[in-house]
Input
Amino acid sequence: MIESEICRLLDIRYPILQGGMAWIADSHLAAAVSEAGGLGIISAMNASVEYLKEQIDTARTLTSRPFGVNVMLMSPHAPAVAEVLAEKKVPVVTTGAGNPSRYIQMWKDAGIKVIPVVPSVATARMVARAGADAVIAEGGESGGHIGEMNTMALIPQVCDAVDIPVIAAGGIGDGRGLAAALMLGACGIQMGTRFLVASECGIHQNYKNKVLKASDIDTIVTGRRLGHPVRSLKTRFTREYSRMESDSEISDEKLEGLAVGALRLAAVDGDNERGCFIAGEIAGLIKKEQTSAEMIREIMEQSEILLRGTKWVK
Amino acid sequence: MIESEICRLLDIRYPILQGGMAWIADSHLAAAVSEAGGLGIISAMNASVEYLKEQIDTARTLTSRPFGVNVMLMSPHAPAVAEVLAEKKVPVVTTGAGNPSRYIQMWKDAGIKVIPVVPSVATARMVARAGADAVIAEGGESGGHIGEMNTMALIPQVCDAVDIPVIAAGGIGDGRGLAAALMLGACGIQMGTRFLVASECGIHQNYKNKVLKASDIDTIVTGRRLGHPVRSLKTRFTREYSRMESDSEISDEKLEGLAVGALRLAAVDGDNERGCFIAGEIAGLIKKEQTSAEMIREIMEQSEILLRGTKWVK
Output
């Protein structure tokens, strides 16, 4: 049994968080992960507060364990979403794509544990000063929006910079990754890509099949030209998008237009032509569909063997 | 004491290799690292065989311990360099920037241990089939030329793919990084950036000062447009170069011209205006100049505390 600060802080059994992926992480996946002893997280994405309220209510019918909601701070609904989270007193809030400082006090007053996702030391310091309970330091191996730093170099630098618990994310998919994260100074992990192929994850089967078939170098980063780099699976669409990014005759507006709806087209419709199939570099390691509970059990067993005898596993 | 396959294979005391950095890794640095119980590596870079012969002879006057030579396979001198290495029977050869398969048998016949640097699973498999004794799997956190993958996701995937020992590189600068690498399945590490500020490293003091002052996000990747991405410290020169890469009115020839000699200008002349100061993302962690022996002792002590009780430290 791994003894971790993050388990005590969040009242969870295993130090494994499930990433709050837009169009993917709903109440069913989140509840399954929380029931299995991890922390499931619902994505509030760009949706309205009605969608979010319904998701929170559903999660509560599916599990009595703690779960979280991820707020995308760039969403036009973010201020309203932030208030709903306080009203609903969700156990945990994670944040991405922006500065959550203005909401932190309100959430803490509602008894919520606040854990921003950070891409750098400076951001980690900022949210720690603003009262965050922990941070998720995410390296660029991850799927979706990425920062400049990668996990191996980011985690120890963030750990040296803040006094609150650090959760490692980016490039982690098994017990080796969890054990490595703990060695780097983290006290837990967040995984997104592995949970894509969880039985309880409702994405289109085409999406799951793409993840299962991916090799190590089957992801690509697009969006650098517009200042929002995103990692997803290589497809004809993302390769072509990448080529257009380096073509100065293609306008920024055209590039923006092509990206609209691409996450939804992948997750909901499994659209091989126009979908953007978000996944991290660890996709190449992921070879089977399992329940969330099986994944978590396997990861804990593997990491406990590696860590036996250390301060983590006595 | 960490018991590692790579120590047995290379007859070294500690599982720490020093990266063969062009214009930086000479016989003095390599001998110091080897004397301290790691594996020092001389860079053959783009230089002629005369330079290399002299470097090997000097290393042998400075240490009786094993050391290595890194061959840059794109160098026009590579075929001649490869033969000199066999003649001189250097203990270890590492290779970068190309496919070393055609030289591996010749080197092995000379009793040399051959360890290619690889950026992906496919390359690792290829060199293992060609007879490599081990691989250095290097993630994109590292300074210098980088591949697509980053360390946290790359190491376990390479370990699953080949039966030969895997050494982890990219983003590693202390005992936490070594311990994490072992958890991921590697049996040792290669470090470049930390050795930049070793007392025995002969680079210009301006260069060392830049590394010591760097924060986590002070590196930048340039050269993507020309197909040869390189990570180095952010300077006015590299920021401006990056801007020019996205300007379609700047020709490829102009970009190539600006890069010529930039490594030498940094390492030898400490030229703040025109030098390209290669360093990895772990630079932000590196805060003091030390001897190579002090660095290695500190890393081993830190990792042994983290790993006590595991199969690595009994």
Q: What stands out?
A: Chain B touches chain A through 47 residues (CB under 8 Å).
